[in-house]
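Narrative of accomplishments. A recurring question from our advisory board has been how the design workflow behaves on a single, concrete structure rather than in aggregate. To address it, we present the structure tokens for one chain from the evaluation set, followed by the sequence designed for it. No filtering or post-editing was applied between the two.
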């Protein structure tokens, strides 16, 4: 069975969808793998390393896409490339399906079975395929490193002959995977860390990392069956902002991580809250690609507002591209292995599989996912 892995062409994307070591695993299972030349160059992997792993290196991207039975990649395809895919083929990548109705429809019209990596269920069985968690963990780490680099203070307490330097105060909003990694990283650097989440159940995790959990009474909240925070009502959002305003005013660094899957990110840090912060402080909006948690954040930019540096840089995992690629490659390989039939040497879709029920977006020329269908009908 022919699998094709094209190189990433999205601007400033340094991550690689699959490493030579994982290519070798699939080749040993009987996969016929072609990669586009220079696939791994951004992470210092050569074509020769992929060839040594058993892959064939090709230069004709369009031919690779149009002839492959399975296409494995990281970023969603552009429409022109989606139209090259053969009927009956399987395409696996990020898809951003709630914002890419036309792309999903093209994939359906082409007869492509499209697997959306963002929609891998958050279950124990699927954990090793969970790209959102693996990449979010790195984003949380990078956010703290960025803040430490830009802040005009040191993070740890220092006892010196010239006096005692107090630790930087870091406030993390959202204690999901990205938030917990940010907490852990900031604590390692010696900061005084506080965190807030709408789900009281994560308070113990926050405290176990050495941070103080900020209590704000929002009434009934909780999480979805997949482990995501439930969307707050407007009244709850207002209470949350009021409760966090004082903490933000005292913080040197604020990092927001709150996202609601399939919807615009909630605005959590308002202009009024930023106005109350100290000049020289830092705000990092990890949700900027989903609409942003911070009023005034600009996607892909750093902007100064009342002396506060609001950072809305995109694709933070690509700043540690080697390890981000390692993790994505492992997630992708685990998914292929899960659906690989060792007898037929093929990637076979089991439509009754619980993992596939969650992430198979198109199949047999139709949009299969019920959530997406309702979203498209409503919008």
């Amino acid at each position: 069975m022919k699998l094709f892995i094209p190189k990433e062409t999205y601007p400033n994307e340094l991550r690689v969808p699959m490493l030579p070591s994982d290519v070798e695993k699939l080749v040993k299972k009987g996969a016929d793998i072609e990669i586009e030349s220079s696939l791994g160059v951004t992470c210092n992997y050569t074509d020769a390393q992929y060839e040594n792993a058993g892959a064939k290196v090709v230069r004709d991207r369009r031919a690779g896409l149009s002839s492959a039975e399975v296409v494995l990649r990281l970023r969603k395809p552009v429409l022109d490339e989606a139209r090259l895919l053969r009927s009956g083929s399987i395409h696996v990548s990020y898809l951003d399906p709630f914002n890419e109705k036309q792309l999903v429809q093209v994939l359906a019209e082409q007869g492509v079975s499209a697997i959306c990596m963002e929609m891998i269920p958050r279950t124990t069985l699927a954990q090793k395929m969970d790209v959102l968690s693996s990449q979010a963990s790195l984003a949380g780490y990078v956010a703290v490193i960025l803040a430490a680099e830009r802040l005009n203070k040191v993070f740890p307490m220092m006892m010196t002959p010239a006096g005692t330097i107090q630790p930087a105060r870091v406030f993390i909003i959202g204690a999901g995977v990205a938030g917990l990694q940010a907490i852990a990283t900031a604590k390692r650097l010696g900061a005084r860390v506080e965190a807030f989440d709408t789900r009281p159940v994560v308070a113990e995790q926050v405290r176990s990392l050495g941070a103080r959990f900020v209590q704000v009474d929002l009434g009934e909240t909780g999480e979805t069956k997949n482990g995501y925070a439930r969307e707050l009502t407007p009244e709850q959002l207002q209470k949350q902002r009021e409760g966090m305003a004082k903490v933000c005013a005292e913080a040197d660094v604020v990092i927001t991580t709150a996202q609601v899957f399939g919807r615009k990110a909630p605005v959590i840090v308002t202009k009024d809250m930023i106005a109350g912060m100290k000049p020289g402080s830092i705000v990092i909006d990890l949700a900027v690609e989903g609409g942003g948690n911070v009023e005034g954040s600009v996607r892909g930019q750093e902007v100064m507002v009342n002396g506060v540096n609001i950072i809305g840089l995109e694709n933070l995992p690509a700043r540690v591209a080697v390890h981000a690629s390692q993790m994505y490659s492992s997630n992708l390989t685990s998914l292929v292995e899960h659906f690989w039939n060792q007898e037929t040497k093929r990637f076979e879709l089991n439509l009754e599989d619980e993992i596939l029920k969650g992430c198979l977006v198109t199949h047999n020329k139709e949009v299969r996912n019920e959530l997406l269908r309702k979203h498209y009908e409503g919008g």
